[in-house]
Amino acid sequence: MINAKKIREDFPILKRKVYGKPLVYLDNAATTQKPVQVIQAMNYYYENYNSNVHRAVHKLSQEATVEYDEAHEKVAKFIAATGMEEVIFTKNTTESLNLAANSLSQQLKKGDEIVLTQMEHHSNIVPWQQAAKRTGAKLRFLEIDGNGELKLQHNSATSGMCNRTSSDLQLPQLMSKKTKIVAFTHVSNVLGTINPAKEIIAAAKEAGAITVLDAAQSVPHMPVDVKKLDCDFMAFSAHKMLGPTGIGVLYGKQELLEKMEPLLYGGDMISEVSFQDAKWNELPWKFEAGTPNVAGAVGLTAAVDYLEGIGVENIHEHEKMLTKMAMEKLRQIDELTIYGPEAARRGGLVSFNINGIHPHDVSAMLDAEGIAVRGGHHCAMPLAKLLGITGTARASFYLYNTQEEIEKLAEALETAAAKMKKMAARTA
Amino acid sequence: MDKTDPVEELYREEIMDHYQNPRNFGKIRDADVSYQDYNPVCGDEITMQLKMENGTVKEAMFTGKGCAISQAAASMLTEEIGGKSAKGIVAMKQDEMLKIIRINPGPVRIKCAMLALRAVQKGIVQYEANRVREAK
Question: How many angstroms away from the CA of B39 is the closest CA of chain A?
């Protein structure tokens, strides 16, 4: 078990008060706070060796280049990729998914199919919509059930929850020889659902499709091994894993990246340029045009170091404990509906609504207590529509959250529900 | 009741009253102005409709769903703009809207508060443009 109280000492912002009350930060699925180790590493870069990378031969540039390249190596190890060739730095998960969608769709033709799920974030829908429009390919969606889990058929003989292997998953009807790309989220940012990534990827492989995993909500919170999953591409952001904003990752299998066209063209991504033509640089630089986010890479390295120091598996266990507790407490509140699967099958977040109160109004009431949650459709409008709601309020947890904070959340929600009821009675 | 409670301040009685008992909620048959707008921040949705007469608002109605602030603001706005000129409504600024609803929603939720006015303004501009086109 991890010591959240001790960990909190590393996060300056968690000492902050909001409206005179201690900050209870439960919006970690949107972005996470930064430990002093990350902040200091970035400051140290700017104060001591700030320079451009891969160009000048002077001392500062040498130091920056080493750090920048090693950040790729560090991330590669963190997700069990073969090497830095497979790790492309982007702006964020959205840019990573756009890069994948843009480059992969160049192989698509009319009649091909792209399979997504109904629980995707806009960033894993809209780029594919555009790819489909450009190429005439068709989008298809794996459906979710009432629990917010994907409807996947399993062989009845081995349908028990345990001991499932990839071969137990029958090819979902949606996937066929027409399926060229299967792109889906590892953990839903709305429902918290942990999707059986390994099984879906295996099914997609059987159909001969390329797989793209949106791991924005999984890599920061649980061990993710691209080799074990066997995914072709995977996208995530530094800022959701204690790192800075403005830097994200696209992992890709080397043999696939070699064949892909870049999204951006310009400096550093070329090996040779004439007036009429250019040759691309080697991986991963082929996909990193222009001066990159060096400070961001330095921060990301420090964030990965921090997470490895604590142990991602331990963080996952801690979040599971908090999520279970939050769901038990919130279930006690009248008129409160929780969305998504049971605690054991979800990541560290809980989406809910209080009957008769808009999620933004719930969020505003919690805010008044110093509790930061997100309210709204969480960039998944099609999913909200499917669930028949305008949105949810969402509390999402991380390694520095404590049981006391869950108590505060539950208390504040109870008070908010009672207050609303009273106001409604007064104005009725 | 504690007067400084920020929740009580934001969700004061008048806002909750308009939220739970919206005024002028519904559709206008043969509306001159009809404009649907969204607030992607929290998924609010408002359709503002006007019946015009000699460049002024004869009737204002709305439908929609969303948070208390967005819906109450729409309800209060429909009460306010009856009899106003199209020009006057298009010229309305943020501070005038805030005077109508008498709350300070803060920098994020200002979008909820402004949704109805922005919708009716866009609707009027569209309506005027169509009239010019038809006149030609």
Answer: 10
The DSSP bridge partners found for residue A183 are: A212
Q: What is the ipTM of this complex?
A: 0.74
Class of domain A4-26+311-427: alpha beta
Place of tokens 């072709």: A232
Residue A428 confidence class, pLDDT cut points 50, 70, 90 = low
Q: Name the residue facing B16 among A377, A391, A427 (closest C-beta).
A: A427
What number is the average pLDDT over the span B25-45? Answer: 90
Selected for mutation to probe chain A from B23, B67, B103, B112 (highest A CB count within 10 Å) is: B67
Average pLDDT, chain A: 93
pLDDT at residue A381 in the model: 82
B6-135 carries CATH number 3.10.129.10: no
Tell me how many helices (H) and strands (E) chain B has: 6, 3
What residues have CB less than 8 Å from A231, skipping those under 6 apart? A197, A201, A211, A212, A213, A251
* pLDDT > 90? residue A14: yes
Q: Which residues of B touch A381 (CB under 8 A)?
A: 43
A334/A428: higher pLDDT: A334
CB of A418 less than 8 A from some CB of B: no
Which two structure tokens, joined as six digits, stand for B68? 């208390």
- Sequence ranges of chain A with CATH classification 3.90.1150.10: 4-26+311-427
Which CATH code, of 3.90.226.10, 3.40.50.1100, 3.40.190.10, 3.40.640.10, is assigned to A40-308?
Answer: 3.40.640.10
Taking only the tens place, the pLDDT of each residue in B82-120 is: 999 999 999 999 999 999 999 988 888 899 999 999 999
| Contact between residue A224 and residue A185 where contact means Cβ atoms under 8 Å apart | no
pTM value? Answer: 0.88
The burial of B53, by beta-carbon neighbours within 10 Å (0-12 exposed, 13-18 middle, 19 or more buried), is given as exposed
Residue B5 pLDDT: 64
Q: Where are the domains of chain B?
A: 6-135
Phi-psi category of A87—alpha, beta or left, where left has phi over 0 and alpha has psi -120 to 50?
beta
